[in-house]
# Entry
Amino acid sequence: MGTGAVGAWVGGCLAAAGVPVHFVVRPARHTTLQAKGLTLTDLEGRQTRLPPEALQLHPHPPDGLKPSLALLTVKSGDTQGAAAALSAALPAGTLVLSLQNGVDNTRVAQAAAPGLVVLPGMVPYNIAELSPGHLHRGTSGQLVAQTHPDVIPWLPVFAQALLPLKLVPDMAPVQWGKLLVNLNNPINALSGLPLREQLLDADLRRCFAALIHEALQVLKAAQRTAAPVTGLKPDRLVRALRLPTPVFRLLAQRMLRIDHQARSSMADDLRRGRVTEIDALCGAVVALAHQHGLRAPMNERVRELVRGWPHAPHPWTGRELWQAMASSLQPLRPPTSKPTP
Ligand SMILES: NC(=O)c1ccc[n+]([C@@H]2O[C@H](COP(=O)([O-])OP(=O)(O)OC[C@H]3O[C@@H](n4cnc5c(N)ncnc54)[C@H](OP(=O)(O)O)[C@@H]3O)[C@@H](O)[C@H]2O)c1
# Structure
């Protein structure tokens, strides 16, 4: 459900492994995929070609279809509408795996589709559309989903599709861990640089580290934990990001195993003038802070800058961005209004 970067990649890998996949795709993309089909490549040298006739494309979830698994792969702002459309078309009890970022999409989708069973999942890697219909996985990692008996039969299928999938009983720490890493998305988007180049800029790393550090304080106050998704525990990640670039380059070799073309999808959204997921990322940190009588001023500031981009599109240098963030810097303090109980 949603054939953008993640939907086309995961659905495409499954289809290439022989799974009958129905892609729900909006009109503009439908035209592209009908003309070009899908090409899937990755940093390990994968080259998979799915010609247009190999793709079953639908403008809406087709009535009468009884999928044993639906993958929800729209951006956070589209979750409610997409889940409602699935709810209208699919039999009650259908399993829906949300492969979205953010910590609230499963709740939103489940509320919009109360008859379906919505599970949280997590995609750890970056997938970019290098040209129309050409999806490229630019980093590595393993898909994660919440443990559920109906997902277990899918494990060998995902493995065969070169999409190794791990199940965990509690996805909340994984989702928060991924959210912390995704706090780089707005920094990357505002910088206008490819991910690797941006991570090799000490000032831009300092901005990213500051957002994570602030979010960790909020999580601590909320008594929540964040799982490591980069191989480094989040507090160590903050320390690593603050190292001088030559040392960071040596220590963070796994993190820097990104090919030169990868950018965050928020960068694409800003470039194309689309709604971003900033509210699901920095906004989630700000909201959690408020729930606990705190503020998260750096995340607030970055949210403002991303929201303001359409009015003043201009790539920020690391120094400019750090100054803009630092000017909001105050110790976490209670908001002026009363906290939400
Ligand atoms: N890209 C990555 O590297 C990556 C990695 C990990 C996780 N994620 C997460 O995965 C989720 C999806 O991201 P993405 O990068 O794949 O986004 P994307 O490329 O924008 O793809 C989302 C697609 O869903 C379509 N869509 C939205 N509502 C729909 C509906 N009701 N019916 C049919 N199609 C609909 C969109 O169409 P329109 O374009 O016409 O709106 C778009 O083609 C996000 O939460 C993202 O944060 C992304």
Residues 2-7, 24, 26, 28-29, 73-76, 78, 81-82, 85, 99-101, 123, 126-127, 265, 277 surround NAP (CB under 6 Å). Confidence is low (pLDDT under 50) at residues 331-341. Residues 5-169 form a domain with the Rossmann fold fold (CATH 3.40.50.720). The chain has two domains: 5-169, 174-326.
